[in-house]
Design goal:
single chain; about 200 residues; mainly alpha; 8 helices; binds heme C
Length: about 200
C-alpha cells in the first residue's frame, strides 16, 4: 500500500514539474531557435502563396511579448558556436560565416562567391531576419525608452523585417550587386537600432 501511494506521489510530482516547465518564460537557445525557424517558414509560405502572413505575425507577437531581455533575442544573430542560428548546414560556409550578423556584414561589403552555392541557405537567412524583425518589434524597447526611442525602435524593427524579406527575394537572382545592396540595407536597419540603443 505504501509503495502504491509513493508511486502515486511520484506521478503527481512529475506532472506538476512538467506543468511548471511548460509555463516558464521562453528560454534562450532551443525553443527560441525553433520558433524563429517556424515564423520564418510561415513567412516563406505567405510569400510563395501570396498570403497575408498573419500566422507569422501572431506567433511573432506572442513570442516577442515573452522575451525579457533583448540580448536573448539578439543572440540568435551570433555565430552558431556562440549560440546563434547559424547559416545553412553547420560550418558549410566556413565557421566564421556561420552566423547571420557576421555574414550580413561581410555581404554588405562583398558577396563571397561561396555563399552563392547555397541560395536556399541565403533565402532562409532572409526569412529568419524578417522573423526576428517581427519578434523584436513585438518585444518592444527597454522600459526606460522615451517617446522618440519607442518610435525608432519600432521603425528599425519594421525595417529589419522588410529588408529581411527583400533580401530573401533577391538572392534567387544570383546578381551579386543586387544581393550586396540588399545585405547593405539589412545591415543599416540593424545598425540604426544599435546606434540608438546599444
Ligand atoms: C529594434 C532594435 C534592434 C534591431 C532592429 C536590431 N538589434 Fe541587435 N541589438 C539591439 C539591442 C538593444 C542590443 C543590446 C542588447 C543588450 O545587450 O542589452 C542588440 C545587440 C545585438 C548583438 C549582440 C548580442 C550579444 O549577446 O552581445 C548582436 C550580434 C545583434 N544585436 C545583431 C543584430 C542584427 C544582425 C540585426 C539586424 C539583422 C539586429 N541586431 C537588429 C537592438 C536591435
Amino acid at each position: 500500500m505504501i509503495t502504491v501511494r509513493a508511486s502515486i506521489l511520484v506521478i503527481i510530482l512529475a506532472a506538476t514539474a512538467t506543468a511548471l516547465v511548460g509555463s516558464a518564460p521562453m528560454q534562450p537557445g532551443g525553443d527560441l531557435k525553433k520558433t524563429v525557424h517556424d515564423i520564418a517558414t510561415q513567412l516563406r509560405k505567405a510569400e510563395k502563396e501570396k498570403g497575408d502572413g498573419k500566422a507569422a505575425k501572431d506567433l511573432a507577437a506572442k513570442t516577442g511579448k515573452k522575451i525579457e531581455e533583448t540580448t536573448e533575442l539578439m543572440a540568435m544573430f551570433k555565430l552558431r558556436d556562440k549560440g546563434g542560428l547559424g547559416v545553412g548546414s553547420p560550418g558549410a560556409l566556413s565557421m566564421t560565416r556561420d552566423g547571420i550578423e557576421p555574414l550580413i556584414r561581410e555581404m554588405a561589403r562583398i558577396v563571397p562567391p561561396i555563399v552563392l552555392k547555397d541560395i536556399g541557405a541565403l533565402e532562409d537567412m532572409g526569412y529568419m531576419i524578417a522573423a526576428m524583425g517581427l519578434i523584436v518589434d513585438a518585444k518592444g524597447p527597454p522600459k526606460a525608452a522615451d517617446a522618440k526611442g519607442i518610435k525608432l525602435w519600432h521603425e528599425y524593427a519594421h525595417e529589419t523585417h522588410v529588408q529581411g524579406l527583400a533580401f530573401a527575394k533577391v538572392v534567387a537572382s544570383k546578381d551579386q550587386a543586387k544581393i550586396k545592396l540588399a545585405a547593405y540595407k539589412v545591415n543599416n536597419a540593424c545598425g540604426g537600432c544599435h546606434a540608438f540603443f546599444k
